[in-house]
Structure formats: C-alpha cells, structure tokens
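A student in our group prepared the protein record below, which I am reviewing. Thanks in advance; the entry in question is below.
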Amino acid sequence: MDEQIKQIAERLRGLRDAMELTTEELANECGIDPKEYEQAESGEYDISVSMMQQIARRYGIALDALMFGEEPKMNTYFLTRAGKGVSVERTKAYKYQSLAAGFKNRKADPFIVTVEPNDNPMHYNTHEGQEFNLVVEGRLLLSIGGKELTLNVGDSIYFNSQLPHGMKALDGKTVRFLAIIM
C-alpha cells in the first residue's frame, strides 16, 4: 500500500499508544467498527478521511496531525497557492489536497478531491456534521443515502454527511471537486 497510508497508520498507532487504549477501546469511543479500525492501523488498507476526522474530533486534535503529521500554526489566515496544498493519496482512486492545513482551530476542513476513474464498487463513508461539494472538473456520480445524483462542472451539493455517501468518476475521466467538511 502507499507509503502515505503507512505513515497515517503509524500516527494512529502512536496516538492510541499515547492514550494507553486498546484498538477496541479507541474504535468504540469514536463510533468506528473495531475491525475497520484495526485494518486502518495496520497500514495495509485504505483509511478514510471520515474515520480520521472522527478520531481527531473525539480527542481534540487537528485532522492535519493525523493526515499529514504536522500541527497547524496560523490563526489569522493561511494561504494555499494553486496546486501547493498538502496532499495525501489514500488510494489510487482518491487524492485529498488540504486547502487550510496550516490554520489552527478550523471550523471546517476544505479539500480539493481528485477521483480517478475505476471499475471498483463505490466506497461509502459516514461522518459527523455536514459536507459541501462543488465539481470543478469532470462528471461525478454521488450517492447519498441510497439516492444517486450526477453532478457536472459547476454543480454543488450540501448534505448531511451522517448519511452513507460515496462518489465515482464518470465517463472514464478524472473528477476534481471542492469538498468542505464541517
């Protein structure tokens, strides 16, 4: 699996060890399936942003600390130049580029998400809060709570992210969208 995934897994293990929790205790406290958490911590499986966000929120740490290994430092503003945001490629299908990695105590987590076309089944996530997506390139199939929607360039959607949701690139082309997770 990708080196970045292994580094995230190491940070998850380090956090859990520092709190002296078992994998089952951490998973239960964060509302995560213990088997899924153990797979994530192994570094051999994809780690969803929603899982990392649940852990970060539960323990009051920055999502960036888990995703990128760096604590945010800015509290007035944080500028991200085009194409320069800190990024993590969770799988060959999804890449997340953080647009506010250096800003402390954010109320939302904005990302540019790149979804590559593939024939794999759609992967579903759920997480606390709400999410906003704006398609900037390609066509996106978005499933929310069992309803499938096609979003084109310029289309946006705001939804309850506690509902199972997943996405897939259409037309065999890469999709890029702005995602703001709140």
